[in-house]
Design a protein that fits this description.
Serine Threonine Protein Phosphatase 5, Tetratricopeptide repeat; DNA Cyclobutane Dipyrimidine Photolyase, subunit A, domain 3; six-stranded mixed sheet; globular
């Protein structure tokens, strides 16, 4: 059974006479997907067929072919997995707020099940779709181990305030999910044939940021990466703040695109053979507490991508230091082209642009230096978010918006001793980085990565 606390009723009403539809838009997987499982449960209860619907929007924030390509290649694999369970995968194109209701009406659907999402654009989709159809709409949180609405009903101040709430509930939710069954009722509705190559080629998105070749999309690759991390890197996770140590999981893109369930990752790490207990605790802190804090922040803070979301103490200290002289001020192009005076910052930017990935420690340094080298926190937020969303595989995500707001605006942080420009916002420095890892080695590695990429020739 699926815990009813994962399910939120977006719209009530009497079910229709047709199939149950699951509108997939965040949790792009056939395994460990509570939205999909709930849809099948309702379909079996009603004795109806079911189908999964995905609507490909022509644009999504600052996503390029890098992100769209990764997503679609993963979805192709998921569609095949669903077909093995006699569940068709329907691909629509256009504005989800229009196309999903249209398909609901055409299919005579009984019920619509969909994914929980904390982002403003997705909340708008859910609101508009619910207004434009007459059947019940169920939203299911398969993104979080402890569902966002269950963990807290308010914006949490910091990790220390949400952590005990999550830990108290973890034993109730850290449980093995049921398997998806072969669906016994045959779907007879219209299922447009999907030419995946043509779908990718036909996208009218920015192709100046190419797809990556170092990471394979899809559920199988995600499971493989999780297994490799547990076998090779989990015990070294305590060294994750060293960008040269290769002690990270590389699971973030899979978690972002919903190709891997965070519950599956947490269960796998918790059940793994003997390993370092402190490393396990640190990984679960990042996977569960920090990720769920990010969803909490974006869900309860509609202006999560603006300086307006900063806590009052941060707004005040930034106002107090607004007139501080900046030794360096760069325009958006200089940031994007990695042309600052700081070789460490440039190396981080090159890593992100060339590979779609930036090491976590460097993401903090990167964002804080943007604050230091722009005229206003508003400018810093806009530049950091655009670059993150355009180049990172895992951009356009609650984690990204929250991390940038933490770095630039003190969200989920505390006041620190006063410094020029930063005020009481926590600062990071080149000398501080040098004390933590081999900066020269990192810069050299990122320069080599850049020189092997198509960007170095532009």
């Amino acid at each position: 059974m699926i815990d009813a606390r994962r399910i939120h009723l977006l719209k009530n009403g009497a079910p229709g006479n047709g199939p149950v539809l699951y509108w997939m838009h965040r949790d792009h997987r056939a395994r460990d997907n509570f939205g999909l499982l709930h849809a099948q449960s309702k379909a079996l209860e009603l004795g109806r067929p079911m189908a999964v619907v995905y609507c490909l929007a022509s644009t999504f924030l600052d996503a390029t072919i890098r992100q769209f390509g990764f997503l679609l290649r993963g979805l192709e694999e998921t569609a095949k997995a669903l077909a093995q369970k006699s569940i068709p995968f329907v691909v629509l194109s256009g504005n989800p707020a229009e196309e999903v209701p249209r398909y609901v009406r055409e299919s005579g659907a009984a019920l619509l099940v969909t994914d929980f999402d904390s982002l403003r654009i997705k909340r708008g989709w859910l609101r508009d779709v619910s207004k434009n159809i007459d059947i019940p709409v169920h939203e299911v949180d398969s993104r979080n181990v402890v569902p966002c609405r269950v963990a807290s009903d308010k914006r949490e101040y910091a990790a220390r305030t949400i952590r005990p709430k999550i830990h108290r509930l973890l034993p109730e939710f850290l449980l093995e999910p049921p398997d998806l069954a072969d669906h016994p009722h045959i779907y007879t509705g219209h299922v447009p044939e999907t030419d995946w190559s043509a779908l990718r080629e036909g996208l009218r998105v920015d192709r100046d940021v190419p797809e990556v070749d170092w990471l394979t999309p899809g559920e199988d690759a995600a499971a493989g990466m999780l297994g490799a991390f547990i076998q090779h890197n989990l015990d070294r996770y305590g060294s994750r703040n060293d960008p040269n140590a290769e002690a990270v999981s590389h699971l973030s893109p899979y978690l972002h695109f919903g190709m891997l369930s965070p519950l599956r990752a947490a269960l796998a790490v918790s059940k793994a053979a003997k390993h370092d207990a402190e490393a396990e605790e640190s990984f679960l802190e990042e996977l569960v507490v920090r990720r769920e804090l990010a969803d909490n922040f974006c869900f309860h803070t509609p202006d999560y991508d603006s300086a307006d979301c900063f806590p009052d103490w941060a707004k005040q200290t930034q106002a107090d230091h607004a007139g501080d002289e900046r030794e360096y001020v760069y325009d958006p192009d200089a940031f994007e082209q990695a042309k600052t005076h700081d070789p460490l910052w440039n190396a981080a930017q090159k890593q992100m642009v060339a590979s779609g990935y930036m090491h976590g420690y460097m993401r903090m340094y990167w964002a804080k230096k943007i604050l230091e080298w722009t005229k206003t926190p508003q400018d810093a937020m806009a530049i950091a978010i655009r670059l993150n969303d355009r180049y990172e595989l895992d951009g356009r995500d609650a984690n990204g918006y929250t991390g940038i707001a933490w770095s630039i605006g003190g969200v989920h942080d505390r006041a620190w001793p006063q410094r020029p420009v930063f005020g009481k916002i926590r600062s990071m420095t080149y000398s501080g980085a040098k004390s933590k890892f081999d900066v020269k080695a990192y810069i050299a590695a990122m320069d080599a990565l850049w020189n092997d990429s198509p960007f170095s020739k532009r």
